[in-house]
Structure of Ferric uptake regulator, Fur family:
Amino acid sequence: MTRPPWIRPALETLMDSGESHAWTLEELQDALGRRGLPSSFSSVFRIANQAVALGHWRKIVLEDGRPRFEPAERHHDHLHCERCGSLEAVPCTFTASVRIRMEQATGYAIRDHSFLWQGLCPRCRQSSDSTARTSKTQRQTRRPQGTRIAKRPC
């Protein structure tokens, strides 16, 4: 079966839209469908991997094993929220001198790197902080009268 010719330009438009930083294949397929452009998963898969091979897109694979695709623009690193899964681009923190020292220490000729900062995004962090405060308040209000909480040394 031949691929409809509109899929490639539609995917390029999506990738350049800034709607998402890094798209999974499923997200790309769903976004095309929402725009009234139904496509097969295999077509999206093939076009995404061709775009990576041609150097137009970059492929990122996180711990969940699902590849994500982003435009291959200026190199950058990523922040990944461990709770909600959001992925955000941040400026690269490694300098040429760090690369040179790494090459000298290992003997490798380094051509690229991928760096992923992991933690909680501001929204999840705020949610986590408010949950922790609520839990602490609930524990303190359930304590029987007359009991003391021993302070633990640091």
Observations:
- The first strand starts at residue 23 and ends at 24.
